[in-house]
Amino acid sequence: MILSKLFGSNCRAKILEKFFIEHSVSSDTTGIFIRELCRDIDEQINSVRRELMNLETLGILKSREENKKKFYNINRSCAIYEELSDIFIKTYNPIEPLKAFFKGKRNLSLITIADSIKQLTNIKSNNIVDIFIIGELDKIEFNNFLEKTFFRRKVKYAVMSEEDFINRLEYDDKLVLSILSQKNISFLKDSLNIQEIISKKIEK
């Protein structure tokens, strides 16, 4: 759903999404500083400042001054707080930014994603890992991406070299087989044809 059409501007929709989802999945109530917000949603400071003022006037956000900085937070007393929260939780799909992130990464041969990570408010995961990756990946870049995309919710992931993975698979490594046989996982990329291999191993 393109929420910018509903809320009048892309900047406003991104601000509301940031505040409502992060408030739902994080216990941090310190609020957000305007420059931090601009960086997180990739919008110009003048546009963000204007939208924050509008949203505060509407009673959706509230602000406070601290050390000469202005911090914004959700106003839980807002009459439509629950309705707005439901809209953003139900329409946000983290799979799309995940696909976009991995699209330009050529040194990856396998990517699996647990379907449960779509449920942002489900803080505790029963998965061994939520994301399993075979290949070369910049973990610092990926950690920063996950923090932004999942609004600081913890996401469990594992990265393994292709050589190590193939060796483990050959000897039926229990950890690898357990990860790949988890229920309700999607294969975002599978250039090694692992789905078929795992199916045959499980059938034995």
Overview of the molecule:
This protein is α+β, with helices and mostly antiparallel strands and 204 residues long. It has two domains: 3-91, Arc Repressor Mutant, subunit A; 95-203, Beta Polymerase, domain 2 (2-Layer Sandwich), CATH 3.30.460. The protein has helices spanning 3-7, 10-25, 34-41, 45-57, 81-91, 95-103, 139-149, 162-170, 174-180, 194-203, and strands at residues 32-33, 61-66, 69-74, 108-114, 131-135, 157-160, 185-190. Strands 6-5-4-7 form a four-stranded mixed β-sheet. It has a three-stranded antiparallel β-sheet with strand order 1-3-2. Strand 2 and strand 3 (69-74) form a beta hairpin. The protein is elongated, with a radius of gyration of 20 Å. The N and C termini lie far apart (44 Å). The model has no long low-confidence stretch (mean pLDDT 86).
What is the straight-line distance between the termini? Answer: 44 Å
Strand proportion: 15-25%
SSE order: HHEHHEEHHEEHEHHEH
Query: Which CATH class of the largest domain?
Result: Alpha Beta
The counted number of beta strands is 7
Number of helices: 10
Which shape, going by the Cα principal axes?
A: elongated
Q: Which structural class do the helices and strands define?
A: alpha+beta
Strand order of the largest sheet: 6-5-4-7
Q: How many discrete domains? A: 2
**How many whole angstroms does the radius of gyration measure?**
20 Å
Q: Tell me the major beta sheet.
A: 4 strands, mixed
CATH topology of the largest domain, by name, is Beta Polymerase, domain 2
**Any low-confidence stretches, pLDDT <50, length ≥5?**
none
